[in-house]
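Sample 1 of the test manifest.
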Amino acid sequence: MKKIVLVDDMEISNFIISTMIENIYPGYVVHDFTNPVQAFSSLNIIEPDAILLDLNMPEMDGWAFLDSMQSRNMSYQVHILTSSTSELDRRRSLTYSNVISYQSKPLDEKELVKILQ
Amino acid sequence: MLVSENQALRITYEAYSRFSNSLIRCRTFDDVAACFKVNLKYLFNFHVFRASYHRGSYYLHLTVTSGGANMQVQHEAGYLAHEEVLLEKGIPACWKELEPFLLPEEYKLPEDEQGELWGWLIRNDEKHQVLVSVLSGTSKLFTKKDITFLKLATENLKTKLLEICLFNELDEKNKYLKDALVTIHEKNTEITSIIEQQKEIIASRTKEIADKNEKLLQISVLNAHDVREPLTRIMGLMSLMEHYASSDDIKDKFLPKLKASSEDLDKALQHVISKATTDLLKLKA
Protein backbone atom coordinates (compact mmCIF):
# COMPACT_ATOMS: atom_id res chain seq x y z
CA MET A 1 0.00 0.00 0.00
CA LYS A 2 1.54 3.21 -1.16
CA LYS A 3 0.83 6.85 -0.57
CA ILE A 4 0.68 8.98 -3.68
CA VAL A 5 0.56 12.81 -3.91
CA LEU A 6 -0.85 14.50 -7.01
CA VAL A 7 0.02 18.19 -7.61
CA ASP A 8 -1.78 19.81 -10.54
CA ASP A 9 -3.68 23.11 -10.62
CA MET A 10 -6.29 21.48 -12.87
CA GLU A 11 -8.74 19.48 -10.81
CA ILE A 12 -9.78 17.39 -13.82
CA SER A 13 -6.18 16.27 -14.35
CA ASN A 14 -6.04 15.07 -10.76
CA PHE A 15 -9.41 13.33 -11.24
CA ILE A 16 -8.08 11.45 -14.26
CA ILE A 17 -4.95 10.23 -12.50
CA SER A 18 -6.65 9.39 -9.22
CA THR A 19 -9.37 7.42 -11.07
CA MET A 20 -6.70 5.50 -12.96
CA ILE A 21 -4.81 4.69 -9.74
CA GLU A 22 -8.04 3.69 -8.01
CA ASN A 23 -8.74 1.24 -10.82
CA ILE A 24 -5.25 -0.26 -10.96
CA TYR A 25 -4.24 -0.16 -7.29
CA PRO A 26 -7.45 0.08 -5.25
CA GLY A 27 -5.47 -0.02 -2.00
CA TYR A 28 -3.26 3.04 -2.73
CA VAL A 29 -3.98 6.26 -0.85
CA VAL A 30 -4.12 9.25 -3.19
CA HIS A 31 -3.80 12.85 -1.91
CA ASP A 32 -4.56 15.32 -4.65
CA PHE A 33 -3.77 19.07 -4.50
CA THR A 34 -4.62 21.87 -6.89
CA ASN A 35 -2.61 24.23 -4.69
CA PRO A 36 1.14 23.49 -4.83
CA VAL A 37 1.90 25.50 -1.66
CA GLN A 38 -0.54 23.40 0.36
CA ALA A 39 0.82 20.26 -1.22
CA PHE A 40 4.35 21.20 -0.26
CA SER A 41 3.48 21.94 3.35
CA SER A 42 1.72 18.56 3.62
CA LEU A 43 4.62 16.50 2.30
CA ASN A 44 6.28 15.74 5.65
CA ILE A 45 2.93 14.78 7.21
CA ILE A 46 1.97 12.43 4.38
CA GLU A 47 5.48 11.13 3.64
CA PRO A 48 4.48 9.98 0.13
CA ASP A 49 6.04 7.09 -1.79
CA ALA A 50 5.66 9.06 -5.01
CA ILE A 51 4.73 12.57 -6.12
CA LEU A 52 3.21 13.26 -9.57
CA LEU A 53 4.07 16.89 -10.21
CA ASP A 54 2.79 19.25 -12.91
CA LEU A 55 5.23 21.96 -14.13
CA ASN A 56 3.05 24.78 -15.38
CA MET A 57 1.14 26.14 -12.36
CA PRO A 58 0.38 29.61 -10.97
CA GLU A 59 1.85 30.84 -7.64
CA MET A 60 4.37 28.01 -7.34
CA ASP A 61 5.35 26.17 -10.47
CA GLY A 62 6.89 22.71 -10.64
CA TRP A 63 10.44 24.10 -10.70
CA ALA A 64 9.89 26.12 -7.54
CA PHE A 65 8.36 23.05 -5.94
CA LEU A 66 11.44 20.96 -6.79
CA ASP A 67 13.78 23.76 -5.60
CA SER A 68 11.91 23.97 -2.26
CA MET A 69 12.21 20.23 -1.80
CA GLN A 70 15.92 20.38 -2.57
CA SER A 71 16.51 23.21 -0.08
CA ARG A 72 14.74 21.19 2.67
CA ASN A 73 16.65 18.02 1.76
CA MET A 74 13.42 16.18 0.93
CA SER A 75 14.14 13.12 -1.18
CA TYR A 76 10.59 11.93 -1.96
CA GLN A 77 10.48 10.42 -5.43
CA VAL A 78 9.00 12.74 -8.03
CA HIS A 79 7.54 11.96 -11.45
CA ILE A 80 7.00 15.00 -13.63
CA LEU A 81 3.58 14.87 -15.33
CA THR A 82 3.13 17.74 -17.74
CA SER A 83 1.39 18.68 -20.96
CA SER A 84 4.72 20.11 -22.14
CA THR A 85 6.56 17.92 -24.62
CA SER A 86 9.60 20.20 -24.53
CA GLU A 87 12.98 18.46 -24.60
CA LEU A 88 14.43 21.41 -22.65
CA ASP A 89 11.94 20.84 -19.81
CA ARG A 90 12.73 17.12 -19.83
CA ARG A 91 16.50 17.69 -19.52
CA ARG A 92 16.08 20.32 -16.86
CA SER A 93 13.83 18.14 -14.71
CA LEU A 94 16.30 15.24 -14.78
CA THR A 95 18.98 17.43 -13.17
CA TYR A 96 17.09 17.01 -9.88
CA SER A 97 18.32 13.85 -8.16
CA ASN A 98 14.88 12.92 -6.80
CA VAL A 99 13.13 13.23 -10.18
CA ILE A 100 12.69 9.64 -11.37
CA SER A 101 10.88 10.18 -14.67
CA TYR A 102 9.39 12.75 -17.00
CA GLN A 103 5.92 11.95 -18.36
CA SER A 104 3.94 13.79 -21.01
CA LYS A 105 0.18 13.97 -20.66
CA PRO A 106 -2.04 12.13 -21.36
CA LEU A 107 -0.48 9.45 -19.23
CA ASP A 108 -0.72 5.91 -20.57
CA GLU A 109 -1.97 3.22 -18.18
CA LYS A 110 1.12 1.08 -18.78
CA GLU A 111 3.35 4.00 -17.90
CA LEU A 112 1.40 4.61 -14.71
CA VAL A 113 1.80 0.95 -13.71
CA LYS A 114 5.53 1.23 -14.39
CA ILE A 115 6.09 4.26 -12.21
CA LEU A 116 3.88 3.25 -9.29
CA GLN A 117 4.85 -0.43 -8.93
CA MET B 1 71.23 96.07 -109.03
CA LEU B 2 70.97 92.30 -108.88
CA VAL B 3 73.61 92.22 -106.16
CA SER B 4 71.80 94.77 -104.03
CA GLU B 5 68.52 92.99 -104.60
CA ASN B 6 70.07 89.72 -103.44
CA GLN B 7 71.49 91.53 -100.47
CA ALA B 8 68.09 92.98 -99.64
CA LEU B 9 66.57 89.52 -99.97
CA ARG B 10 69.19 88.07 -97.65
CA ILE B 11 68.53 90.74 -95.06
CA THR B 12 64.80 90.09 -95.32
CA TYR B 13 65.38 86.36 -94.86
CA GLU B 14 67.36 87.08 -91.73
CA ALA B 15 64.52 89.27 -90.49
CA TYR B 16 62.03 86.53 -91.40
CA SER B 17 64.11 83.98 -89.50
CA ARG B 18 64.09 86.21 -86.39
CA PHE B 19 60.34 86.71 -86.81
CA SER B 20 59.78 82.95 -87.07
CA ASN B 21 61.89 82.20 -84.03
CA SER B 22 60.07 84.84 -82.04
CA LEU B 23 56.64 83.61 -83.19
CA ILE B 24 57.42 79.99 -82.30
CA ARG B 25 57.92 81.02 -78.67
CA CYS B 26 54.55 82.84 -78.42
CA ARG B 27 52.07 81.28 -76.02
CA THR B 28 49.27 83.90 -75.99
CA PHE B 29 47.51 86.21 -78.44
CA ASP B 30 49.23 89.16 -76.76
CA ASP B 31 52.61 87.46 -77.32
CA VAL B 32 51.72 87.20 -81.03
CA ALA B 33 50.77 90.88 -81.20
CA ALA B 34 54.04 91.86 -79.49
CA CYS B 35 56.04 89.68 -81.93
CA PHE B 36 54.36 91.30 -84.93
CA LYS B 37 54.89 94.76 -83.51
CA VAL B 38 58.65 94.19 -83.29
CA ASN B 39 59.34 92.05 -86.38
CA LEU B 40 56.84 92.74 -89.12
CA LYS B 41 58.30 96.11 -90.20
CA TYR B 42 61.57 94.35 -91.18
CA LEU B 43 59.76 92.06 -93.62
CA PHE B 44 57.92 94.70 -95.67
CA ASN B 45 56.64 98.26 -95.53
CA PHE B 46 53.10 99.11 -94.43
CA HIS B 47 51.01 101.75 -92.70
CA VAL B 48 48.49 99.24 -91.41
CA PHE B 49 48.68 95.43 -91.43
CA ARG B 50 45.59 93.52 -90.46
CA ALA B 51 44.90 89.79 -90.23
CA SER B 52 41.56 88.22 -89.26
CA TYR B 53 41.19 84.63 -88.15
CA HIS B 54 38.10 82.75 -87.15
CA ARG B 55 37.70 79.53 -85.17
CA GLY B 56 34.58 78.25 -83.43
CA SER B 57 32.87 81.14 -81.72
CA TYR B 58 36.06 83.24 -81.63
CA TYR B 59 37.01 85.99 -84.11
CA LEU B 60 40.59 87.27 -83.88
CA HIS B 61 41.71 90.54 -85.45
CA LEU B 62 45.40 91.42 -85.37
CA THR B 63 46.12 95.05 -86.31
CA VAL B 64 49.72 96.31 -86.64
CA THR B 65 50.63 99.98 -87.22
CA SER B 66 53.80 101.99 -86.70
CA GLY B 67 52.27 102.94 -83.32
CA GLY B 68 51.85 99.39 -82.06
CA ALA B 69 50.04 96.09 -82.42
CA ASN B 70 46.75 94.91 -81.03
CA MET B 71 44.90 91.57 -80.98
CA GLN B 72 41.14 91.78 -80.64
CA VAL B 73 39.48 88.59 -79.46
CA GLN B 74 35.69 88.67 -79.77
CA HIS B 75 32.57 86.63 -80.41
CA GLU B 76 31.18 88.90 -83.13
CA ALA B 77 32.65 88.68 -86.65
CA GLY B 78 33.59 92.41 -86.75
CA TYR B 79 34.94 92.32 -90.33
CA LEU B 80 35.82 95.61 -92.05
CA ALA B 81 34.04 96.43 -95.32
CA HIS B 82 36.99 95.44 -97.54
CA GLU B 83 37.34 92.16 -95.64
CA GLU B 84 33.70 91.38 -96.38
CA VAL B 85 34.47 91.86 -100.07
CA LEU B 86 37.50 89.56 -99.87
CA LEU B 87 35.45 86.91 -98.05
CA GLU B 88 32.74 87.09 -100.65
CA LYS B 89 34.91 87.07 -103.77
CA GLY B 90 37.84 85.03 -102.46
CA ILE B 91 40.34 86.66 -104.87
CA PRO B 92 43.26 89.00 -104.06
CA ALA B 93 42.63 92.71 -104.56
CA CYS B 94 44.41 96.06 -104.55
CA TRP B 95 42.22 99.10 -104.02
CA LYS B 96 43.19 102.70 -104.62
CA GLU B 97 39.75 104.13 -103.92
CA LEU B 98 39.49 103.80 -100.14
CA GLU B 99 36.68 106.27 -99.36
CA PRO B 100 33.77 103.81 -99.87
CA PHE B 101 35.19 101.39 -97.27
CA LEU B 102 34.73 103.90 -94.42
CA LEU B 103 37.93 102.57 -92.81
CA PRO B 104 38.68 103.18 -89.13
CA GLU B 105 40.85 105.98 -87.73
CA GLU B 106 44.25 104.25 -88.02
CA TYR B 107 43.73 103.88 -91.80
CA LYS B 108 43.59 107.68 -92.35
CA LEU B 109 46.54 108.88 -94.48
CA PRO B 110 47.57 112.30 -95.74
CA GLU B 111 46.41 113.03 -99.36
CA ASP B 112 49.92 112.86 -100.83
CA GLU B 113 50.50 109.33 -99.47
CA GLN B 114 48.23 107.94 -102.23
CA GLY B 115 47.08 105.04 -100.07
CA GLU B 116 46.72 101.58 -101.51
CA LEU B 117 44.87 98.74 -99.80
CA TRP B 118 45.99 95.22 -100.63
CA GLY B 119 43.97 92.21 -99.58
CA TRP B 120 44.09 88.36 -99.68
CA LEU B 121 41.96 85.52 -98.49
CA ILE B 122 44.40 82.74 -97.61
CA ARG B 123 42.54 79.51 -97.00
CA ASN B 124 43.19 75.80 -96.73
CA ASP B 125 39.52 75.05 -96.18
CA GLU B 126 36.31 76.67 -94.85
CA LYS B 127 37.39 76.30 -91.25
CA HIS B 128 40.99 77.35 -91.57
CA GLN B 129 41.50 80.66 -93.33
CA VAL B 130 43.03 84.09 -92.77
CA LEU B 131 41.97 87.43 -94.21
CA VAL B 132 45.00 89.63 -94.53
CA SER B 133 45.26 93.23 -95.73
CA VAL B 134 47.99 95.84 -95.97
CA LEU B 135 47.57 99.61 -96.27
CA SER B 136 50.60 101.13 -98.00
CA GLY B 137 51.50 104.58 -99.35
CA THR B 138 54.33 106.42 -101.02
CA SER B 139 56.36 106.64 -97.79
CA LYS B 140 55.67 102.97 -96.95
CA LEU B 141 55.66 101.35 -100.30
CA PHE B 142 54.38 97.80 -100.64
CA THR B 143 55.08 96.00 -103.94
CA LYS B 144 54.35 92.63 -105.47
CA LYS B 145 57.82 91.49 -104.47
CA ASP B 146 56.76 91.75 -100.84
CA ILE B 147 53.87 89.33 -101.31
CA THR B 148 56.11 86.25 -100.81
CA PHE B 149 57.14 87.33 -97.30
CA LEU B 150 53.67 88.54 -96.49
CA LYS B 151 52.27 85.10 -97.35
CA LEU B 152 55.04 83.30 -95.44
CA ALA B 153 54.39 85.50 -92.39
CA THR B 154 50.63 84.96 -92.73
CA GLU B 155 51.00 81.16 -92.99
CA ASN B 156 53.09 81.19 -89.81
CA LEU B 157 50.53 83.41 -88.12
CA LYS B 158 47.65 81.13 -89.14
CA THR B 159 49.42 78.05 -87.74
CA LYS B 160 50.31 79.83 -84.51
CA LEU B 161 46.76 81.16 -83.99
CA LEU B 162 45.36 77.68 -84.54
CA GLU B 163 47.85 76.30 -82.03
CA ILE B 164 46.92 78.88 -79.37
CA CYS B 165 43.20 78.31 -80.03
CA LEU B 166 43.69 74.55 -79.57
CA PHE B 167 45.67 75.11 -76.38
CA ASN B 168 42.92 77.35 -75.04
CA GLU B 169 40.24 74.81 -75.96
CA LEU B 170 42.29 72.09 -74.29
CA ASP B 171 42.61 74.22 -71.15
CA GLU B 172 38.89 74.84 -71.11
CA LYS B 173 38.16 71.15 -71.55
CA ASN B 174 40.69 70.28 -68.84
CA LYS B 175 39.06 72.74 -66.52
CA TYR B 176 35.66 71.28 -67.34
CA LEU B 177 37.02 67.78 -66.72
CA LYS B 178 38.57 68.87 -63.43
CA ASP B 179 35.24 70.31 -62.35
CA ALA B 180 33.55 67.09 -63.41
CA LEU B 181 36.13 65.10 -61.44
CA VAL B 182 35.48 67.19 -58.35
CA THR B 183 31.75 66.63 -58.77
CA ILE B 184 32.31 62.89 -59.23
CA HIS B 185 34.43 62.77 -56.06
CA GLU B 186 31.77 64.66 -54.14
CA LYS B 187 29.05 62.34 -55.41
CA ASN B 188 31.19 59.31 -54.61
CA THR B 189 31.65 60.49 -51.05
CA GLU B 190 27.94 61.11 -50.81
CA ILE B 191 27.12 57.67 -52.22
CA THR B 192 29.62 56.00 -49.88
CA SER B 193 28.06 57.67 -46.88
CA ILE B 194 24.58 56.72 -48.09
CA ILE B 195 25.71 53.10 -48.50
CA GLU B 196 27.22 53.12 -45.01
CA GLN B 197 23.97 54.47 -43.64
CA GLN B 198 22.02 51.83 -45.53
CA LYS B 199 24.29 49.11 -44.15
CA GLU B 200 23.65 50.31 -40.62
CA ILE B 201 19.92 50.46 -41.25
CA ILE B 202 19.93 46.99 -42.79
CA ALA B 203 21.94 45.59 -39.87
CA SER B 204 19.63 47.12 -37.29
CA ARG B 205 16.52 46.02 -39.23
CA THR B 206 17.89 42.51 -39.60
CA LYS B 207 18.54 42.33 -35.88
CA GLU B 208 15.08 43.68 -35.19
CA ILE B 209 13.50 41.03 -37.42
CA ALA B 210 15.60 38.24 -35.86
CA ASP B 211 14.54 39.41 -32.40
CA LYS B 212 10.90 39.51 -33.43
CA ASN B 213 11.16 36.07 -34.99
CA GLU B 214 12.63 34.63 -31.83
CA LYS B 215 9.96 36.29 -29.74
CA LEU B 216 7.22 34.92 -32.00
CA LEU B 217 8.77 31.48 -31.85
CA GLN B 218 8.82 31.59 -28.05
CA ILE B 219 5.24 32.77 -27.98
CA SER B 220 4.13 30.06 -30.38
CA VAL B 221 5.84 27.37 -28.26
CA LEU B 222 4.21 28.73 -25.08
CA ASN B 223 0.86 28.92 -26.84
CA ALA B 224 1.17 25.35 -28.08
CA HIS B 225 1.67 24.19 -24.47
CA ASP B 226 -1.30 26.18 -23.28
CA VAL B 227 -3.42 24.58 -25.98
CA ARG B 228 -2.08 21.13 -25.27
CA GLU B 229 -2.99 21.18 -21.57
CA PRO B 230 -6.85 20.98 -21.92
CA LEU B 231 -6.39 18.66 -24.87
CA THR B 232 -4.46 16.15 -22.70
CA ARG B 233 -7.29 16.29 -20.20
CA ILE B 234 -9.81 15.42 -22.90
CA MET B 235 -7.60 12.60 -24.12
CA GLY B 236 -7.14 11.31 -20.55
CA LEU B 237 -10.88 11.42 -19.88
CA MET B 238 -11.65 9.61 -23.11
CA SER B 239 -9.31 6.73 -22.37
CA LEU B 240 -10.66 6.47 -18.81
CA MET B 241 -14.20 6.27 -20.20
CA GLU B 242 -13.27 3.48 -22.58
CA HIS B 243 -11.83 1.27 -19.88
CA TYR B 244 -13.68 1.88 -16.67
CA ALA B 245 -16.79 3.98 -16.88
CA SER B 246 -20.41 2.86 -16.75
CA SER B 247 -23.00 4.86 -18.64
CA ASP B 248 -24.11 6.51 -15.40
CA ASP B 249 -20.54 7.53 -14.66
CA ILE B 250 -20.20 8.95 -18.15
CA LYS B 251 -23.30 11.08 -17.73
CA ASP B 252 -22.58 12.27 -14.18
CA LYS B 253 -18.81 12.47 -13.91
CA PHE B 254 -17.24 12.57 -17.32
CA LEU B 255 -19.51 14.67 -19.52
CA PRO B 256 -19.28 17.83 -17.34
CA LYS B 257 -15.48 17.43 -17.19
CA LEU B 258 -15.26 16.87 -20.95
CA LYS B 259 -17.40 19.95 -21.48
CA ALA B 260 -15.25 22.08 -19.14
CA SER B 261 -12.04 20.83 -20.76
CA SER B 262 -13.40 21.45 -24.27
CA GLU B 263 -14.30 24.98 -23.27
CA ASP B 264 -10.80 25.48 -21.85
CA LEU B 265 -9.37 24.19 -25.12
CA ASP B 266 -11.53 26.61 -27.07
CA LYS B 267 -10.45 29.51 -24.84
CA ALA B 268 -6.81 28.59 -25.25
CA LEU B 269 -7.17 28.44 -29.03
CA GLN B 270 -8.99 31.77 -29.16
CA HIS B 271 -6.25 33.27 -27.01
CA VAL B 272 -3.59 31.93 -29.39
CA ILE B 273 -5.40 33.31 -32.41
CA SER B 274 -5.88 36.78 -30.94
CA LYS B 275 -2.27 36.87 -29.66
CA ALA B 276 -0.89 35.80 -33.04
CA THR B 277 -3.04 38.41 -34.79
CA THR B 278 -1.78 41.15 -32.44
CA ASP B 279 1.81 40.04 -32.99
CA LEU B 280 1.34 40.08 -36.76
CA LEU B 281 -0.15 43.59 -36.62
CA LYS B 282 2.79 44.74 -34.47
CA LEU B 283 5.24 43.25 -36.96
CA LYS B 284 3.61 45.08 -39.85
CA ALA B 285 3.58 48.38 -37.98
